[in-house]
Amino acid sequence: MDTPGKSTPSPADPPSSAGLTYAASGVDIEAGDAVVELIKPAVRRTHTARVMGQHGAFAGMFRLDFNEALFKRNYRDPVLVACTDGVGTKVKLAAQRGILDTVGIDCVAMNVNDLIVQGAEPLFFLDYLGLSRVDPPETAAIIGGVARGCEIAGCALIGGECAEMPDIYEPGDFDVAGFAVGVVELSRAVDPARVEPGDVLIGLRSSGIHSNGFSLVRRIVDHAGLDLDAVHPELDGDRTLAQRLLEPTRIYSRPVVKLLSGYRVKKVVSGMAHITGGGLPGNLNRALHDGVAARVQLDSWDVPDLFRFLQAHGDVSEDEMFRVFNMGIGYVLIVRPTFAEAVMRKLRRYGEDPVRLGDIVPGNGEVSLA
After folding, report:
1. Looking at domain 192-369, which CATH architecture does it have?
2. Mean pLDDT (whole number) for 297-315
3. Phi, psi at residue 156, to the nearest 5°?
4. Which of 1, 95, 130, 278 lies in the 20 to 30 Å Cα band around 89?
């Protein structure tokens, strides 16, 4: 599981009378061991019968076979799907405000939301945490967030790495990234070639900024002199601006996987897109082929007040806002028109608040916002 990494001894550290030590170089092995113990309960909550091996092993093991006692459903022709991603400069804000238990959820979300676009079920996850110094409670809070994200996503956290590197990271700084693996039946894998004119766009709402565009967010905060610890009257609720900005990225895997598993024969969903950096225009186009286009109706949902707040304080153009941020829609499904209402009903039962965003028309693979 997560253990301290290696770092080069700093020449600024004076040798002790007992000689040079790893601790004097800035790497505390005992603190790393303490973190491993602290995160055990959170990690174990993500494990199922498919996870093998011991906590703290050199590598995680996950059983992939056709034993019905382990799998809820069998795969005749399984295809492994893998992806990797991080949280970006959102971690800078988290470090500055000392809110460390949510960015791990972001890390899982950024990976599994990409993975399910292919129609895959998430299986397991591994994290990488690089930081200046291992403070056991703080480090355990970050990794605990990863474990919580895996619980929400329905995948197992089977390993990771915690690298203490004082020569790379400034005091208080850290970065977190992850790697996810899933599986999909070959015949059920999502293929953009199946998208047809007349298909309906169904959007799933975001929880806020998610984990993209934070370089611009931080620039707006600095430019406008916004107080991150204040409750701003322009924003609903009693949370501070920092708390609003650090709201974790929504994880869509459970409702999407459940929806797909409910259509064993009919291929009702013809395409999907995770709306990350690039917004709707820069991500929905990745779910299309050259013979179709997506037409999004901007009046089909209300853009959350946080985006308008940032836009006003940063004097950011409408085009730039939609090019950078998700603007309230974090995931899009492209669905056959005769099944659109049924799909929306199912999604509501699964806890979503779906939005009919628009439709697919003949075109050249582009996305129009009207």
Report:
1. Alpha-Beta Complex (3.90)
2. 97
3. -100, 135
4. 1
